[in-house]
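Researcher: I'd like a candidate sequence for this fold, 187 residues long. If you have to choose between options at a position, lean toward the conservative one.
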């Protein structure tokens, strides 16, 4: 068996019988997921000062809030690999994305700091689930296409991040309420 046919045999069944057009659509869809993930993460990042001010956080408390995001991410990455393999990347991307966006919409409306920590931890878990699943999907799409595309996909995450930060900053500068911005970004 050649290297190419061996790689093809390891593809998920959903990618084996795709036409060239369908493979290109899969690439575009995966690029969109990377863009949206970057946009959402940057939209949250724009509001770190807002979180600090809304909850009257000192530097240590703000650092702990940021640690909650990282803790949720690490926990999800450690726990979700077998679940993602079982349910598939499409369902895992959808689940992780929905959890992440629902939590993003809640960040600035929860009434207490302990709730903020919980929402941020779950936000991190959703983001990590989406991250692992979209990268697994990207690997399968890359194999199906038979050419390297991973760097362009991660580039889309960065473009999404720049877009999310620029739009978020512009909307806040024009007076949009921070909670409205995060709800809009989540939608």
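Model: Candidate sequence:
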């Amino acid at each position: 068996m050649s290297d190419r046919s061996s790689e093809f045999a390891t593809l998920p069944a959903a990618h084996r019988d795709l036409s060239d057009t369908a493979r290109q659509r899969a690439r575009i869809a995966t690029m969109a997921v990377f863009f949206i993930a970057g946009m959402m993460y940057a939209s949250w990042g724009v509001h770190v000062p807002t979180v600090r001010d809304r909850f009257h956080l000192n530097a240590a408390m703000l650092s702990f809030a940021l640690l909650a995001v990282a803790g949720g991410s690490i926990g999800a990455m450690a726990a979700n690999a077998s679940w993602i393999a079982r349910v598939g990347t499409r369902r895992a991307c959808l689940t992780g994305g929905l959890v992440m966006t629902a939590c993003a919409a809640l960040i600035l409306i929860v009434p207490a700091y302990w709730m903020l920590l919980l929402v941020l931890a779950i936000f991190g878990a959703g983001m990590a689930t989406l991250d692992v699943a979209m990268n697994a999907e990207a690997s399968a799409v890359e194999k199906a296409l038979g050419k390297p595309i991973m760097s362009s996909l991660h580039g889309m995450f960065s473009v999404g991040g720049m877009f999310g930060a620029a739009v978020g900053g512009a909307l806040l500068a024009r007076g949009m309420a921070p909670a409205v911005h995060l709800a809009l970004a989540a939608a």
